[in-house]
Amino acid sequence: VGSCGAMAGTGGELLIVEHVKFRNSDAGKSPIGSIHIFKEYVEWRDATSPSRHKIAFGDIKGQRVSPPHKPKVQLQVCMQDDGQATFVFLRPGADKEALMRERDAVKETLQQALVAHRQRVQQMTISAEKGSRDAEIEAKSKILKQSRQLEELYKHLVTSKLLTPQDFWTDYYKTTGKTEERTGMTGAFLANIAQADTNGLKLNLNTNIIQNIFATYPMVERKHLELVPHEMTEEEFWVKFATSHYFHREREVLPNPDDPFADCVKFDEEEISKLVNGGTKRKRLNFEYLSDNVVSEINGSQRPESSSTANSKDKQRTTLIRRCNYLSERILITQQQDNAAAVGGAATAAAAASSSTTNAAGPAENGTAAAAASNGVNGAPARSSGYAVLHRWIGDADDAMESAELAEDETELQLQPIKVADGTSFVVSEFAREDADRYRAIVYNFMDDVTEMEILDPSEDWMSASPSTSSHNHGHSLNGKTGGQHGGKPVSLDPATQWGACTPFVGEIRVVHDAVNELVKHFWTCFPPVTPELEAKIERMEQTLKRYEQTALAEAEQRFGAQFFAHTRDMIGRAHARYVQYIARRKK
Amino acid sequence: IRLTIDGLEVFFPYEYVYPEQVLYMQELKKSLDAPGHCLLEMPSGTGKTVSLLSLVLAYMRKYPDKLEKLVYCSRTIPEIEKCVAELQNLFKYYETTSGEAPQMLALAMSARKNLCINEKVLAARTGVGIDGACQKLTVSFIRAKKRMSDPDLPECPFFEKLDSTPQFELPNGVWNLSDLKQLGSSAGFCPYFVARKAMSKANIVVYSYHYILDPKIAELVSKDFSKRSVVVFDEAHNIDSVCIESMSVAVSGKTIDRATKELSALERTVERTREENAQRLQEEYEKMVESLKRTERERANDERLANPVLHGDILNEAIPGSIRTANHFVIFLKRVVEYIRHRLRSSSVLIESPASFLKDINDKMFIDRKPLRFCAERLSHLSRTLELADASELGALTQICTLATLVSTYSKGFTVIVEPADPSQPAMLHLSCMDASIAMKPVIDRFQTVVITSGTLSPLEMYPKILDFDPVVVASLTMTLARPCIAPLIVSRGNDQVAITSRFESRADVAVIRNYGNLVLEVASIVPDGMVVFFTSYTYMEHVVATWYDQHIIDELMKYKLLFIETNDALETSVALEKYVEACDSGRGACLFSVARGKVSEGIDFSHHLGRAVIMLGIPYVYTESRILRARLEYLRDQFGIKENDFLTFDAMRHTAQCMGRALRGKTDYGLMIFADKRFSRQDKRGKLPRWMQEHLDPANTNLSIDEAGQQARRWLSLMAQSFSKKEQLGISILTKDMLNEKTMQKFEKVVEHID
């Protein structure tokens, strides 16, 4: 290309070609200048005047080239608004072929840039439609709508800035911890696409199948971006695909300019030979390596000459077989790429999960760990860890001796218990020894305190109608003693009578109770404070509790009477006591 | 542990031993004691190699004057390497238990392509290319020339260093290919020539069949091995084919064209040499006479392994005058080449005996039988005299001379077949060896014990016949198993009750092909991980795959497993295989379509998850219309009284067993074996399977429909999926030292079966 005078520019240009005449559909004269292709647009610059003409990729519908027998070598850019911009290649001293080469270079670069541009646009649209941020907000507002009580709580605590939204949502909105593992690809996604019935062809396509096709045959995706919707509709594209020779793997594909998939075949052939020339990593599968018979190579007796001389007829017969192999190979490669990405994702997810184990995320749901799909049907295999037996076999096959089985250890299992860690399960982290000791000490300390401490009695939960309360108590009555620590307090009165006395206020009183419950819960979930974040949260919650006590609670007591809030006072008091204790211990 | 086998103390490098290994060693010892030859069948995965090595090593240490050398022949490089690894392990065991490794030298030997460490030579890549490049650097006269006149000639530093240190000897120990290379790199010696040099002295040599069976190589590397040697052919179920292949020559028009070119080049060289150094040509003849005399003397004194190409008779005869001088010989060869070219023009198929070939060449070209017999020897001398370093430069001519020598030497056991050109192949002249015993005879005659062993040798009585020897021990050992990890099922009909078979009349039937497809689908939906499907031939596979594609069976299959298919191209197949292994390793599961007698069925193991099921679609009869096969069948019938059908069935069944055996490579392994052909139900077919397969074939499972087979397989797979440990095998299929007494061993007396 360089010899044609084309070059990549320094100012972000992908390609610059000099000596190009530009003819606009409306302009009368056609000056000579240079054409510059950028990442997002094409620009033509007049050689003599500062006049420039810029075409954004968004406006381009497609491009056309002049037929080879025409004297002029032209490239036409068709616009969305049916306008055209024509470029004539006029490099002095170059013959027609050189000009055509130059033109083709421009065309190819422009095409690639266009495809890349369209890809970007498509991605942007997709992310705008269902951005993860939006999805989260939507999900959260849905949660709030579903529970009036939560909504009240949210208003009371978050809107009043007592709690940060993050703190609030830790308990009520759980992200799965990691991005959802991509569903594996079935090998048969091409199976039922086209069904010929009496009325012609019927296509069964869904986004999943299309995704699979794109992932397996990237060239089809490129064609799709090139053609849809600029030259044909989505529907037309898939009909063409399903009826193409390309789709029918047993057919030979003749180079047909009308068939948009002819390129795909060429691309596939290239990929196949790339794969084949890549050779094998495992020596024992390499037939050339296996055999040690040099003389018969010379002798040539009863051996086919060499594979390369296989004539074209043979090739044709093996087309189907080679394409079947290629399909499977592509699926495997795509899957491996996915896996590589997933392993990366899983690592971060594991990190996130291990930190979440320390807060009240709840016990692991190990029971849901799915058994690995034995058959690999749609199976996205988890291969990162825990397959000792399999790995041994794999290693074995390569270089173990026949007799090695005799030497095997008694303890080595032949079966592998499989644990698949998904987003919801408890990740058992390994701690370093000193860390483990430290955490253990903290927990023991905490447990000591608990036995000394007086704990709320769940049986006295007179507000048991609130689910959050009960869960809270359940979570923290670690060592709950039954018995009336609150002996003789008004709470033991018949609730109905008491409530009956102030029916209109019950709702408001309840909000206060819920809020305190929530705050206290956040306070207690920080114990044992094994990370600096949790320590900071204790501080924060203590401040919040104090503030709440002085403002909202005090106000409510004034309005409805202190007797309704004795319990809340008590809870806050205990939290304060625990805080004092905690500070004292930390100072030690 | 130390075992006592019939009074001989054997060091066995493991704490456990399989009962069949003990019995195998007993049989082997009988044969060494006799001494005589033996045929032993024992399934792969039961540790044949380690038993054999342990026993022979113990024997050699105890009776060094009775047994001097072990020559272990295997088929592929990985097998050679594994065998040497076993040996290393055994030596280590000797060292730890008795404080000292055996003072013996053991080494692996292979072609230059696996041993060369000279980067420049390795750049040639192909086996032949590397050999040629090496010879150009190392042949004596080129090196002499370099010393004398032309110091700019390239040289191989590794070879030179080895040559300049003649006192260097490979130390005792076990040398694998990689060890030799490592030694070569660190000491700067050429590993290939170190190995070549050490071979005659070594106590144990491990190499591939061709080094002893192929006369052209055996002459170079194996001829001075001691008579008191034991020669082992492992994986020997195809040994007759190897023998035949090594003695057969095929000549095409292309070969003739190349030979003509080589001849004119040769002629020019002769002319030039005559001008430069007439003396040398004169000496050449004398040298040749001298060397033939020496060979004769050595053979008379029984010092050497005989070369079947160089027949005993010609050693006693004078070289005919017509080819004595170099240019006479060249002219003579021209006539031979012209004659073959003339024969290739034939428009009809001709099958004739060597005698009528000789008569015809005499009638047409006035070429006698006698000079023809000297061709091969004469050419190799000439090329040495003319200092043609690279043997591949005379490749086609060597081939024609071998043909001339063979056709004039053997009146029996060979046939000449001329096939005219047809669209699928060019015209060919085959000199086809039909008698495997010709190549085998020198080995059988020379060495005191020849052991032929494999996992699948059944029916055993066939081998002594076709190889024409008289073994002292013929035994088949089965596999002791603590759980039924072999599950042979014979599927004879589809769910629609249509018989499934690969008989020629019905194999193209759509119903049969669909039923085969249903079977594959059924198995694919049941079996985890990898499965392998064998077809009877490549063309049939192409046909079936195309039909399945139309019937959407391929698409259905892809729902369960990824699909990989063997192709004609070795490289493509390698890549497909590797992807298959990756798919199985990653848990995706895959299905491999392959061909019986193909590359995959011979060299690749599908242990554990790589092969949980093997399906044989049909009986893999060899293509009977081949003229070469026809001629061989007739020969076998006339000479050895083997019925045509018996041989064909034998051949088909051994390939079936080979394919099936691919899946089971050990006692902890397990695999389904599905025989999909109605004809397998018959006793005359399945009775020819190895005993270890037959024993696990339940009579109830010999005539199943696809559904029934599916049910059996389901039940069996869930049984196999249970965990399984060594403890459960103790006393049943694995023994400790304490268990090795008469009483326990009595339990296993049925494991071995002798065949008279």
Automatic annotation (TrEMBL), chain A:
A Pfam family that the UniProt record links to this protein: BSD
Cross-referenced Gene3D superfamilies: 6.10.140.1200, BSD domain, Pleckstrin-homology domain (PH domain)/Phosphotyrosine-binding domain (PTB)
Major location (coarse): nucleus
Keyword field: Coiled coil, Nucleus, Repeat, Transcription, Transcription regulation
Ranges for domain BSD: 127-180, 197-249
InterPro entries membership: BSD_dom, BSD_dom_sf, PH-like_dom_sf, Tfb1/GTF2H1, TFIIH_BTF_p62_N
Region (Disordered), start-end ranges: 461-490
Residue ranges the record marks as coiled coil: 531-558
Annotated compartments: Nucleus
Cellular component GO terms held in the UniProt record: transcription factor TFIIH core complex
Source organism superkingdom: Eukaryota
GO annotation terms (biological process): DNA-templated transcription; nucleotide-excision repair
UniProt record similarity statement: Belongs to the TFB1 family.
Name of the protein this chain belongs to: BSD domain-containing protein
Source species of the chain: Pristionchus fissidentatus
Automatic annotation (TrEMBL), chain B:
Coiled coil, from the record: 256-305
InterPro entries, per the entry: ATP-dep_Helicase_C, DinG/Rad3-like, DNA/RNA_helicase_DEAH_CS, HBB, Helic_SF1/SF2_ATP-bd_DinG/Rad3, Helicase-like_DEXD_c2, P-loop_NTPase, RAD3-like_helicase_DEAD
Chief place where the protein resides: nucleus
Magnesium as UniProt keyword: no
Cofactor entry: [4Fe-4S] cluster
Record bears the keyword Isomerase: yes
GO annotations of cellular component type: nucleus
One Pfam family from the record: DEAD_2
Reaction catalysed by this enzyme: ATP + H2O = ADP + phosphate + H(+)
Name listed for the protein in its UniProt record: General transcription and DNA repair factor IIH helicase subunit XPD
Species whose genome carries this gene: Pristionchus fissidentatus
